[in-house]
Each structure stands twice: as structure tokens, then as C-alpha cells.
């Protein structure tokens, strides 16, 4: 395992075998979580130890291959190159409550949602914990903007990479590290029911976001293949169990797609099915993806849908589109870059 993916006790165990005192573990951990690029920067470590560590546990940091900044709203999108050459995206959004990074959890995605650019090339591999941490860390360093909030809503399905994501949460939340509060972290899933139950057992204070996008199986089956494995009723039951275990309100994401899931009837069906479950809806006007025939709902349809939910006591916000001038929706930048590279290779 990469040293930056390890906890302080785990680093301590390695140092013990090297005959080093225990307190060095915290020193090294703190340096790594400051984003140093080499052991040479760890000025309070003996030279000899720095050299040994550099040989045995080289430090990797991602490189910026593309950086785009929105002129409209200051959103910054990074395309990072990882140690093995793969690329992932991170988006920095500036909200009134704090700077928020949207990070990727996998290179590509297995889930096959019809409207999503991240899944077009399938799954390449899952990210390790430090590769998620690095996205937060180096976005903060490169932009010079302190990060207070994280959303796991970039490329990939976080619950398909469960153990590494749990490890990442522990690292980024640690007081000796970035110390980002669990309450400032949202994890978004397409609805892997057994993993939602596993997550509930951890009783974390994070927000669970569920990509619902449809009120019933008939519609959801046409846009989200995962629904065949975990149909809407099973998913909503898992959400109820999650709420019982954590007392955390579920946040539902709902991409508004013209003529597919945006009628008042659809909203009414949701209201019936969610009865008694504390929830919040995030309505996202669909971002058009070149390869897909699906179109965003009209402003009127979105407003009607929102009003129907709110009249029934379900809070619903329409997500502001940030970075629309910089391909800032899921997987679009990586997709573009990969296609360009393929083109160069031809
Ligand atoms: N795999 C996770 C997290 C990544 S996607 C999940 O499915 O939740 C983050 C959110 O963006 C999801 O709700 C996803 O369905 C949505 N999304 C993906 N492509 C989109 C698009 N073109 N327009 C609007 N929302 C999109």
C-alpha cells in the first residue's frame, strides 16, 4: 500500500520494523498531508531516514494536465495525471458556505447510466485512498483556496470502491491531516443496496446522496442499468434503513430529462413513494452529453416539478449550473482529453 494511504498506526508499524521511534509516524503523516512532493521537505526527519524512506516508499503527487477556469463563476476544473498515467477530474466550486471540491473515486465507471459521460469507456480501475486525498490536497495547493467541503460526485461509483473510499474518509477527516468534518462531506451513489447497508453500519455523519432520477422501475430501467439489480423499492427501503441507522436525511439527486422523468405525475409518484422518509431533492437540469440523445427539461418543467414536491413538504432545490463554459459535468473533460489522445495516436 502507498504510504499516503496509511493511517498513523500503520506508518508506525513500518517505522518500528525499521527501528525508528513511534513519534516519527505522526511527523511523516503530517508532512504527507501537507502535500510535500519529496522527503527532502521533511525537515524534522534525520537525513538517513529520509533517504531510506525515499527508496522504499516513494512519494507520488498528481500532475495537472489540464486546468480550466470558468470566467462566469470561478469554478476550476482540473484534469490530473496519476502515477500510472491514467487521468481523473476534480472540480472546485465556490459556494457561499465554503470552497467545495467534487472528486473522482474511479478511473471510468461500470454503471452505464445513459446520460453520463464518465461511463462511456467503462471502468479502467478503482482509485486508492491517497489518490482521492491528493485531489483535495493538490486542488487546495494549486488554487490557493482553502477547501472546507467535499462531494464524492465526480467520475466513478464510490460504493463500488468501498474500502478505499472508507479509508479516504478516515484520512481526510483526521485532525493530523486535512481535518475536514464528516458533516461537510457528501457521498453520491447510483444505488448499490448492499453497500448502502454496509455504509449505514458505520454511522458516519456524512450526507448520503442517492441518484434516483426516476419515480419507478419502468422509467429508471431505461436510464440506469443498476436498477435491474436493485430496483426502486429495494433502494427506497435501503434509504429508510439508512435514515433509521444514522438519523441523516437522504439527499436525492434527480437529473431532469425532457419528456423522460419530468412530468407532474412523476413528481406525485415520488411523493407517494417517499412518504415518511425525511428527504431533500436536488434537481439537476441535465447536462447535455454529446454521445446521448437525452435533452434537459425546460425551465418551466423544472419549476413545476419543484413546486409539486415543495407543496407536498419535500424541500427541493434546483442545482445551479456552475462551470457550464468549461465542460464541468461528470467525466466530460477526461472524455475529451482521452479522445484527443486517441486521435493523436492514430
Ligand atoms: N456514481 C455516483 C456519483 C457520480 S455522478 C452516482 O451515480 O451518484 C454524480 C451525479 O451526477 C449523479 O447523480 C449522476 O447521476 C449525475 N449525472 C451524471 N451525468 C449527468 C448529466 N449529464 N447531467 C446531469 N447529471 C448527471
Describe, in plain words, how this protein is organized in 3D:
With 346 residues, the chain is an alpha/beta fold. It has twelve helices and twelve strands. The protein has helices at 8-17, 23-32, 47-56, 129-143, 162-173, 193-202, 217-223, 226-229, 232-246, 264-273, 299-311, 332-345; strands at 63-69, 76-81, 87-95, 98-102, 106-108, 123-126, 147-152, 185-189, 207-211, 250-256, 279-285, 316-318. β10 (250-256), α10 and β11 form a beta-alpha-beta unit. α10 (264-273) runs parallel beside α11. It is globular and about 70 Å long. The model has no long low-confidence stretch (mean pLDDT 94). S-adenosyl-L-homocysteine is lined by residues 113, 115-116, 153, 157, 188-190, 211, 253, 255, 284, 286-287, 289, 329-330.
Q: How many angstroms separate the termini?
A: 36 Å
Q: Can you write the helix and strand succession as a string?
A: HHHEEEEEEHEHEHEHHHEHEHEH
Largest sheet descriptor: 10 strands, mixed
The proportion of strand residues reads 15-25%
Strand order of the largest sheet: 1-2-3-4-7-8-9-10-11-12
Average pLDDT, rounded to a whole number, is 94
Bound compounds, each kind once, are: S-adenosyl-L-homocysteine
The level of helicity is 25-40%
Specify the oligomeric state. Answer: single chain
Structural class: alpha/beta
Low-confidence residue ranges: none
Radius of gyration: 21 Å
Count of individual beta strands: 12
How many individual helices? 12
Shape: globular
Amino acid at each position: 500500500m502507498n504510504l499516503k494511504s496509511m493511517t498513523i498506526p500503520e506508518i508506525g508499524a513500518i517505522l518500528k520494523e525499521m527501528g525508528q521511534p513511534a513519534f516519527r509516524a505522526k511527523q511523516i503523516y503530517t508532512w504527507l498531508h501537507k502535500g510535500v512532493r519529496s522527503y527532502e521537505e521533511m525537515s524534522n526527519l534525520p537525513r538517513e531516514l529520509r533517504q531510506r524512506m525515499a527508496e522504499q516508499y516513494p512519494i507520488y503527487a498528481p500532475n495537472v494536465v489540464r486546468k480550466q477556469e470558468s470566467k462566469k463563476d470561478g469554478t476550476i476544473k482540473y484534469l490530473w495525471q496519476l502515477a500510472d498515467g491514467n487521468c481523473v477530474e476534480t472540480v472546485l466550486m465556490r459556494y457561499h458556505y465554503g470552497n467545495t471540491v467534487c472528486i473522482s473515486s474511479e478511473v471510468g465507471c461500470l454503471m452505464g447510466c445513459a446520460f453520463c459521460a464518465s461511463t462511456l469507456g467503462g471502468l479502467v480501475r478503482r482509485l486508492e485512498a491517497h489518490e482521492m486525498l491528493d485531489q483535495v490536497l493538490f486542488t487546495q495547493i494549486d488554487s490557493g483556496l482553502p477547501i472546507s467541503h467535499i462531494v464524492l460526485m465526480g467520475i466513478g461509483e464510490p460504493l463500488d470502491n468501498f474500502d478505499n473510499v472508507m479509508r479516504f474518509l478516515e484520512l481526510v477527516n483526521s485532525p493530523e491531516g486535512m481535518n475536514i468534518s464528516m458533516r461537510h462531506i457528501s457521498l453520491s451513489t447510483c444505488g448499490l443496496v448492499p453497500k448502502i447497508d454496509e455504509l449505514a453500519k458505520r454511522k458516519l455523519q456524512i450526507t448520503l446522496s442517492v441518484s434516483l432520477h426516476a419515480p419507478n422501475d419502468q422509467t429508471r430501467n431505461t436510464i440506469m442499468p443498476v436498477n435491474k439489480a436493485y430496483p426502486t423499492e429495494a433502494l427506497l427501503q435501503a434509504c429508510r434503513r439508512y435514515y433509521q441507522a444514522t438519523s441523516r436525511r437522504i439527499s436525492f439527486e434527480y437529473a431532469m430529462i425532457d419528456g423522460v422523468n419530468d412530468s407532474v405525475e412523476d413528481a406525485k409518484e415520488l411523493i407517494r413513494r417517499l412518504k415518511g422518509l425525511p428527504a431533500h431533492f436536488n434537481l439537476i437540469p441535465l447536462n447535455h452529453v454529446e454521445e446521448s440523445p437525452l435533452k434537459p427539461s425546460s425551465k418551466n418543467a423544472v419549476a413545476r416539478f419543484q413546486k409539486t414536491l415543495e407543496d407536498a413538504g419535500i424541500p427541493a432545490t434546483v442545482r445551479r449550473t456552475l462551470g457550464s463554459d468549461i465542460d464541468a459535468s461528470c467525466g466530460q473533460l477526461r472524455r475529451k482529453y482521452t479522445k484527443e489522445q486517441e486521435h493523436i495516436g492514430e
